[in-house]
Amino acid sequence: MDSNKKVAKPINTKDTKSIIDEILGDVSKTSATKQIIIGASSGWVTGYLAMKVGRAAAFALGGGVILLELANEKGYIRINWDKINRQIDQVSDKVEEQITGESANWMDKVRGVFVDFQQFFYF
């Protein structure tokens, strides 16, 4: 092994924290102007990063849905919509039970099926 090669050292979190503390210090003891500048700039950076990450996530999710639909349309995959709808109903029942503290009774389920049936036949 070549002794002239430099090996990267892991970042010491204590050093990083001390650097940040040294730069920013205790913000609450500084002037109001500096506090506003630090708050505004950190908010701007946070918003910018959230925008970039959100855009990438939305693009990936939307692209994935479009690709799945295209693959379904071309016959590469087959989506079992009945199974998906059953699982969605089960999850919604569990969520409703967690929120309200009581499970949906059979009358609510019959009412929901009737509403879905009605919407299916109205154009």
TrEMBL record:
Domain of life: Eukaryota
Location within or outside the cell: Mitochondrion outer membrane
Transmembrane segments: none
Record keyword Membrane present: yes
One annotated Gene Ontology cellular component of this protein: mitochondrial outer membrane
InterPro entries, A to Z: FUN14 (IPR007014)
GO biological process: autophagy of mitochondrion
Family (UniProt): Belongs to the FUN14 family.
Name this protein carries in UniProt: FUN14 domain-containing protein 1
